[in-house]
Amino acid sequence: MKKILKITGIVLGMVLLLLLLAPMLFKGTLEDLLKKHINENLDAKVAWEEMDLSFFRSFPDVAVVIKNFSVVTNYPFQGDTLASGASLKLEMGITQLFRSDDEPIKIDALQLDDALINIKIDSLGNANYDIALKSEEIDNSETSKANDDSFTFDLNHYEINNSRINYLDESSKTYLILKKVNHMGNGDFSLDNLELKTETDALVSFRIDDIEYFNENSISLVADFQLDLKNQKYTFLENKAKINELPLTFDGFVKVNENDTQLDLTFKTPSSDFKNFLAIIPKKYVKNLKGVTTTGDFTVDGVLTGMINENHIPKMDIKIRSKNASFKYPDLPKAVKNISIDIQLKNETGLEKDTYLNIGGLTFKIDDEIFSVKGSIRNLTENALVNLEIKGTLDLANVERVLPIELEQDLSGIFKANVTTRFDMHSVETEQYQNIRTTGTASLTNFTYRDDAFRDEINISEVSVKMSSGNITLNKLNATIGQTDISASGNIQNLIPWVMAKQDLKGHFNVRSNTFNINDFMASEDTSLKEKSSGSNSNESEEGIKIPDFLDVTIDFIVNKVIYDNVLLENTKGTVRIVDETAILSNVTSKAFGGNLAFSGNVSTKQATPTFTMNLDLQEID
After folding, report:
1. Could you tell me which of 159, 230, 325, 451 has the fewest CB atoms within 10 Å of its CB?
2. Is residue 5 part of a domain?
3. Which residues pair with 558 in a beta bridge?
4. Which among 111, 143, 171 is the end of a domain?
């Protein structure tokens, strides 16, 4: 018995010694094989900091761990990082280490941790992931042919942890970013047909040109797929998906062909609870849905069918609908009622330019105030054609009374609108105002606004605008800031471009004021940061006039009293042109110091220290 135990101990010791020594014996061989395979098949610089071989991490399999790796592309994406990561683990059976040189090593499992995958397609259609050496660059000898199959990925399990995927297509201006990607799959990839079980979660941002569809929305998917690897057809089986907290189920397949990709997919919400609508709104606006009471329904139904290639996208019909719904948060005083949603995204031709959004109606009610929007946006991906009708009343203060939202500043004021507008985005961007057709009225009353450019808050008691074809009239503007009161009327050239394209506001206005205190327009500025570089620890603040950078206007003004520090100007009138943070004064007359004063000049606040030039004409001064 002792002899048996002794022999057993010796055998176990030898096995243990072999397990300890094997990494040193086989590590160099595997690393050389991997480098050779890369050099013979990839046109890229592939590097790693360290490669480990272990028999203990995945016993009885062998684990190869490649640490701190990177894949850097060559021309035409010279120096770009296609992929990098903290570690890549490959698992294989122990017998794979004893394969002959002409036999491929079979990989059973793969794990990728803390990786970055950076996919880019330039405006000419070149893809940075197209790094495989072309057939004419590869030696067609039997040796090379064998080396081309140095590894086979007959996976049973794979996973990606805490990784990021960037996708940029410059030609279509498509941007996709997946952050905090965690994905795993289980299936036998040695088979031509297999069932793959997957779990995925990520934060998704997606936009086409300037239209943002997702902004770090949480997406999760637990799905089973039927994979036909030979024909590259992937079919949805049982699955559950969530966008934020919106549940969806999918049916259909995706098939990858040589020159295109074929889609036949449908998706829908499995239930019609109106909470599904709140679930799709980013969490920073809706917070926790626990305790929220809802009525009515909300459904999403979509169909995607057709081909994806250079000239086509799938035909689509995506409907988002709700009828007579409501919601109320338990800790907030007001409810949103009579919610109706009828939105359809459709493409009937498979041509990208024919995609359009139809807003049959978007209506809601807070207290007795009803607000509604309807219209359409056609030619979405090129020169968008917008046709909208906005009608209703909205108390801005109610935003915080119905949603648990934290705003940078409190909202107040009553907004009323009865507006119809038609325009194309090219006309907006190129200032072809004659092509912007807007009619109706809009007003805002009792609105308070705070801006860093001003020391005091701005109180707008009333502003009303009337719009007709080719003409936008500012009927009335009454506002105060500090001691200053302003009453204005005039014409606005570009209200829609100012709102939608962030252009400077252009117009010609008549302004009246009883008291205009220039000190009210001083901007306070903490100068401590500026002075740190010179060794000063002062926390004093300095004040300076700040001319808004979004104005491109001409103003004819009459002011009874102008106050600047201890200087008083009376019966001041003239013209000021404001553009590029500069006020150009002309034909200004006033009474001061017991006499008459006339002057012209300009004041610029574009630099940190304001600059000015002035021509003065003084008469009968005491």
Report:
1. 230
2. no
3. 512, 573
4. 171
Euclidean distance between CA atoms 445 and 440, whole angstroms: 17
Nearest alpha-carbon partner for 173 in 126, 147, 209, 206: 209
In sequence order, the 6+-apart residues with CB closer than 8 A to the CB of 25 are none
Pairing of strands 541-545, 174-186: unpaired
Burial 18-49 (b: 16+ CB within 10 A, else e): eeeebbeebeeebbebbeebeebbeebebebe
Best CA proximity match to 516, nearest among 559, 474, 573: 559
Q: Are 93 and 106 in contact (CB under 8 A)?
A: yes
How confident is the model at residue 172, as a pLDDT? 76
Tell me, yes or no, whether 334 lies in a domain: no
Phi-psi region of 574 (alpha: psi -120 to 50; beta: other; left: phi over 0): left
Nearest to 243 by CA among 208, 278, 209: 278
* CB of 105 closer than 8 Å to CB of 98: no
Alpha-carbon span 71 to 131, nearest angstrom: 10
Domain final residue pick, 171, 195, 221: 171
In what helix (H) or strand (E) does residue 276 lie, and over which residues does it extend? helix 275-280
In a domain, 180, yes or no: no
Residues of the chain with pLDDT under 50: 1-25, 140-148, 526-542
Query: How many structural domains comprise the chain?
Result: 2
H-state helical runs in 83-182: 142-147
Counting every residue, how long is the chain? 622
Tokens of 537: 């620890």
**CA separation for the pair 519, 564 (Å, rounded):** 6
User: DSSP label at 309?
Assistant: S
Is the pTM value of this prediction over 0.70?
yes
Whose CA is closest to 250, among 232, 263, 233? Answer: 263
Q: Using one digit for the tens of pLDDT, what is the confidence trace for 67-92?
A: 999 999 988 899 899 999 999 988 87
Domain that holds residue 514: 494-619
Tell me how far CA of residue 62 lies from CA of 190, 398, 573, in angstroms.
19, 62, 88
Q: Can you give the pLDDT at residue 431?
A: 76
Residue 217 lies in a domain: no
